């Protein structure tokens, strides 16, 4: 089933996108900072969410991992 139609898979993809963008921005900030608008601006926004809300994102990742490993 596609991640678009399964809510848990959609949340997993969004969390992975946020974590990946924040990690890439921590390594090379210039890659994401030059594209703040437009379609590629989505990655910059995900990186900002990952940086500013990192405790909440970490808790969501732990809950999602627990859910995937033990509930499914």
What does this structure look like?
This protein has 72 residues and is mainly alpha-helical. It has one domain (7-71). The chain has helices at residues 7-27, 29-33, 41-52, 54-71. Helix 1 packs across helix 3 (41-52) and helix 1 crosses helix 4. Involved in the early part of the secretory pathway. It is a single-pass type I membrane protein. InterPro entries: KISH_domain (IPR051523), Ksh1 (IPR009653).
Our Rg estimate from Cα atoms comes to 13 Å
Quantity of strands, as a count: 0
- Our measurement of the CA-to-CA distance between the termini, rounded to an integer number of angstroms, reads 15 Å
Q: How helix-rich are the residues, as a percent range?
A: over 70%
**Total tally of structural domains:** 1
Q: Taking all residues together, what is the mean pLDDT?
A: 88
Membrane topology: Single-pass type I membrane protein
Protein name: Protein kish
Pfam family, one: DUF1242
Family: Belongs to the KISH family.
For the structure shown, list the relevant keywords:
72 residues, mainly alpha, 0% strand
Detail the topology: elements first, then pairings.
Layout: H1 7-27, H2 29-33, H3 41-52, H4 54-71
Quick summary:
The chain is an all-alpha fold and 72 residues long.
């Amino acid at each position: 089933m596609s991640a678009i139609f399964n809510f848990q898979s959609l949340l997993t993809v969004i969390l992975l996108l946020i974590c990946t963008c924040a990690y890439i921005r921590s390594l090379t900030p210039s890659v994401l900072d030059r594209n703040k608008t437009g379609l590629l601006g989505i990655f910059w926004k995900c990186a900002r969410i990952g940086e500013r809300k990192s405790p909440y994102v970490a808790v969501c990742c732990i809950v999602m991992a627990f859910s995937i490993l033990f509930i499914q």
